[in-house]
Amino acid sequence: MKVDVYKRPEREGMFSYLAVPEGRPIPSEATNIDWETAENSIDLDENNEPVHGFSAADALSQINDKGYAITRVQNNRMRIGPNV
Question: What's residue 21's pLDDT?
Fold first, then answer.
């Protein structure tokens, strides 16, 4: 699956990332945040390296559940999953 990835600044120079299926808009529940484009048309494939903290399995699971995937920074570490 190809996705577009957006980022927003967090603390200490780190970023949170949002991935949506390629060509889809940022979901309405996430538009209140100033996202900027990080990369377009990224291939989420289980054989590829994680992209901006997204592993293919985690991102695809989140996209299937809610239409987008998101990371966040917690204790100077990137966290991925439903507790975001």
Answer: 95
- For 22, 52, 57, 73, the CA distances from 64, given in Å and listed in that order, are 14, 19, 11, 22
Give the C-alpha separation, 18 to 35, whole Å: 8
7 pairs with which residues across the strands?
Answer: 17, 36
What pLDDT is stored for residue 84 in this prediction?
A: 39
Q: 26 with 45: CB under 8 angstroms?
A: no
Report, as an integer, the average pLDDT of 10-20.
86
Instruction: Output the DSSP codes for 30-72.
Output: GTTS--EEEEEEEE--TTSPPBTTB-HHHHHHHHHHHS-EEEE
- Strand-pair category, 15-21 with 2-9: antiparallel
**pLDDT by residue (tens digit) across 39-48?**
899 888 777 7
Query: What is d(CA 77, CA 43) in angstroms, rounded to the nearest whole number?
Result: 24
